[in-house]
Automatic annotation (TrEMBL):
<feature type="signal peptide">
    <location>
        <begin position="1"/>
        <end position="23"/>
    </location>
</feature>
<dbReference type="InterPro" id="IPR052367">
    <property type="entry name" value="Thiosulfate_ST/Rhodanese-like"/>
</dbReference>
<feature type="domain" description="Rhodanese">
    <location>
        <begin position="39"/>
        <end position="129"/>
    </location>
</feature>
<dbReference type="InterPro" id="IPR001763">
    <property type="entry name" value="Rhodanese-like_dom"/>
</dbReference>
<keyword id="KW-0732">Signal</keyword>
<dbReference type="InterPro" id="IPR036873">
    <property type="entry name" value="Rhodanese-like_dom_sf"/>
</dbReference>
<dbReference type="Pfam" id="PF00581">
    <property type="entry name" value="Rhodanese"/>
</dbReference>
<protein>
    <submittedName>
        <fullName>Rhodanese-like domain-containing protein</fullName>
    </submittedName>
</protein>
């Protein structure tokens, strides 16, 4: 009987820890789902590329906070940690690192664009200069 109870406890503990990890993880969305989500209220859209890359074309309403810049942490401090933050870069590498950093800084709801703006552009989605 003790073994059954212990097994059940470990099973429940494992299940709840998996749920917590899912809730705490960064969501990576394909272009279609990302495009839908950026229209939701209170979304903070952040392009983490360099200012030069940003000026070549970005998703409308995005703010540019260069992940590679020394002041990244200071600039993201102006964002609301309780509101959704959606990030993207050129192909997904920098935005994955930026998402991890945002998580470390206490942001709760982080979404990354799978394949970055390169993927966005390959699907002929609109950008602005």
């Amino acid at each position: 009987m003790k073994i059954k109870v212990l097994s059940l406890m470990f099973l429940l503990l494992g299940f709840t820890s998996c749920l917590k990890n899912q809730a705490d993880s960064v969501q990576v969305l394909d272009v279609a789902k990302y495009e839908q989500k950026i229209t939701q209220p209170d979304v903070q859209l952040v392009d983490v590329r360099t200012p030069e890359e940003f000026s070549e074309g970005h998703i409308e309403n995005a703010v540019n906070i260069d992940f590679m810049a020394d002041d990244f942490d200071a600039k993201v401090a102006s964002l609301d940690k309780e509101k959704p933050v959606m990030v993207y870069c050129k192909s997904g590498g920098r935005s994955a690192k930026a998402s991890a950093r945002l998580k470390e800084l206490g942001f709760k709801n982080i979404t990354d664009l799978e394949g970055g703006i390169s993927n966005w552009n390959s699907q002929n989605k609109p950008t602005v200069k």
